[in-house]
């Protein structure tokens, strides 16, 4: 159980695209990669952007879910495992694992164990799991919840003087 995540970090589509591209720039120093393994669902969007920037056309997914009730993490559930062809490729150390973020690190650790030689990258990282990833773009504090553009909608914001939250 981690601290309550009572701060918020909303991310727009523009910002997410820019941050994912910044990660691709960083990964230029680590190339070449034979394949991307994205941790779905959150890893799908950054994986698409990075695959486009680095010219990677072999994309595998591993589906792991553990946040069943909004911010509450429960049992880790591997909904779709990695295919054997990609696990065999890991021997060369040229697999790139992509996710949107690491928080407690529980999800990332499980995938790391499946592909021990891979380079693991996320767009965002919280301190508890920062050391688990080989590269990331932005660190946010452990008590911050990141709101991704696919989880948000445009809505009315009350004026600050009427008690708007930042
Ligand atoms: O470091 P952790 O504490 O394990 O949390 C990070 C994971 O949590 C979220 O996925 P989620 O389980 O919500 O599934 P989703 O990607 O399908 O939304 C996020 O996309 C990461 O994969
Ligand atoms: O949308 C999300 N934002 C987060 O900060 C987070 N941490 C774990 N899982 C998460 N999902
Ligand atoms: Mg996820």
Structure explained in plain terms:
It is built from 4 helices and 8 strands. 25% of the residues lie in helices and 31% in strands. The mean pLDDT is 94. With 166 residues, the protein is α/β, with parallel strands linked by helices. The longest helix has 15 residues, at 13-27. The strands form 2 sheets. The protein has a 6-stranded mixed beta sheet with strand order 4-3-2-5-6-7, sandwiched between helices. Strands 1-8 form a two-stranded parallel sheet. Helix 1 packs across helix 2. It has one domain (10-149): 3-Layer(aba) Sandwich (Rossmann fold). The chain is globular, with a radius of gyration of 16 Å. Residues 67, 101, 103, 145-146, 148, 151 line the site of xanthine (XAN). It is found in: Cell membrane. Belongs to the purine/pyrimidine phosphoribosyltransferase family. XGPT subfamily. Residues 12-155 form the Phosphoribosyltransferase domain. Homotetramer. InterPro entries: PRTase-like, PRTase_dom, Xanthine_Guanine_PRibTrfase.
Brief descriptors of the model:
Rossmann fold; 166 residues; alpha/beta; six-stranded mixed sheet; binds xanthine; binds 1-O-pyrophosphono-5-O-phosphono-alpha-D-ribofuranose; 4 helices; binds magnesium ion
């Amino acid at each position: 159980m981690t601290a309550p995540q009572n701060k918020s970090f909303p991310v727009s589509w523009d910002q997410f695209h820019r941050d994912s591209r910044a990660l691709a720039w960083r990964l230029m120093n680590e190339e070449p990669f034979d394949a991307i393994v994205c941790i779905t669902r959150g890893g799908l969007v950054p994986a698409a952007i990075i695959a486009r920037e680095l010219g990677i056309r072999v994309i595998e997914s591993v589906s792991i879910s553990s946040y069943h009730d909004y911010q509450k993490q429960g049992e880790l559930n591997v909904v779709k495992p990695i295919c054997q062809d990609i696990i065999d490729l890991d021997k060369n150390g040229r697999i790139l694992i992509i996710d949107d973020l690491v928080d407690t690190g529980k999800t990332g650790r499980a995938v790391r164990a499946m592909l021990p030689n891979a380079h693991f990258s996320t767009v965002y990282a919280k301190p508890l799991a920062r050391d688990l990833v080989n590269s990331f773009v932005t660190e946010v504090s452990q008590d911050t919840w990141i709101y991704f553009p696919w989880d948000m909608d445009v809505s009315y914001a009350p004026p600050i003087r009427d008690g708007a939250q930042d």
